[in-house]
Write a structure and sequence with these properties.
Blueprint lengths: L1 E6 L5 E7 L6 E4 L2 H4 L5 H7 L4 E2 L6 H9 L3 H34 L2
Antiparallel strand pairs: 1-2, 1-4, 2-3
Length: about 110
C-alpha cells in the first residue's frame, strides 16, 4: 500500500491510500468526497501528477505511476486532461463571443 499526503487548494492536508487488493487498484482519500467514493480534487490531482504532495511521500510517486500504467485509471486520467484542455478553449471562446455580443447590442 502507498500513502500520500496531498494538500488541497484550501491548504488542508488529506491522506490518500493506494492499494491493489486482488489485482484491483483502489485509491481512497480521507476527504469528505472520498468518504462517499465520489471523485475528489485530491485523488485527481495525484493521479494526474499535479498534486501538492508532502516531501515525505514523493518517493511513492514513481511506484504509483507503475501501478496505474496500462489501467483504465491511466486512460481515464489522460482523457480527463484532454477534455480539460478542450473545456478551457471553449470557455475562452465563449467569453470572447460574449464580449463581442455585448458590444454589438450596445451599438
Amino acid at each position: 500500500m502507498l500513502t500520500f499526503s496531498v494538500r488541497s487548494s484550501e491548504g488542508d492536508l488529506h491522506k490518500i491510500k493506494v492499494s491493489n487488493p486482488r489485482g484491483r487498484l483502489r485509491v481512497v482519500c480521507s476527504c469528505e468526497d472520498g468518504a462517499h467514493d465520489a471523485l475528489c480534487e485530491h485523488r485527481l490531482s495525484l493521479l494526474s501528477g499535479e498534486a501538492n504532495i508532502s516531501t515525505r511521500t514523493k518517493a511513492n510517486v514513481a511506484r504509483l505511476k507503475e501501478m496505474i500504467e496500462g489501467t483504465d485509471i491511466e486512460r481515464c486520467v489522460s482523457e480527463w486532461r484532454s477534455l480539460q484542455s478542450v473545456r478551457a478553449k471553449i470557455n475562452r471562446d465563449l467569453r470572447r463571443t460574449e464580449v463581442r455580443l455585448s458590444k454589438a447590442l450596445c451599438r
